[in-house]
Amino acid sequence: MSSRVVASPPPPSNVVLDVDGCLTIGGAAVPGASEAIRSIQRLGLRWLIATNNSTRNPEHVAQHLSAVLDVAIPPESVV
Q1: Beta strand 28-29 with 46-50: parallel, antiparallel or unpaired?
Q2: CA-CA distances (angstroms) from residue 24 to 13, 44, 65?
């Protein structure tokens, strides 16, 4: 009988979050979104926030999310 070794996947080092439906719904924070971002920051993971809203520039999105989520969102994290 042979034994099989299964390696665990490495932990994530990058996180991409979507705005609508992941962080906010209808402009309001999704429950737990702020805590999730704080955890990602605390763990030192690289992260981006993705949006398909072409009517707002990254600075506007970051400012809006910072206010709604009560977490500092740097504009350079918004793509």
Answers
A1: unpaired
A2: 23, 23, 8
Q: Under 8 Å CB-to-CB from 22, ≥6 apart: which residues?
A: 30, 33
d(Cα 41, Cα 48) in Å, to the nearest integer?
A: 11
Query: pLDDT tens digits for 35-69?
Result: 999 999 999 999 999 999 889 999 999 999 999 99
pLDDT category of residue 4 using cuts at 50, 70 and 90: confident
How many whole angstroms separate alpha carbon 64 and alpha carbon 66? 5
- Decide: 51 and 20 in contact? Cβ < 8 Å: yes
19: which 2 tokens?
């705005």
Q: Is 79 exposed, middle or buried (0-12, 13-18, 19+ CB in 10 A)?
A: exposed
Cα separation of 46 and 51, whole Å?
17
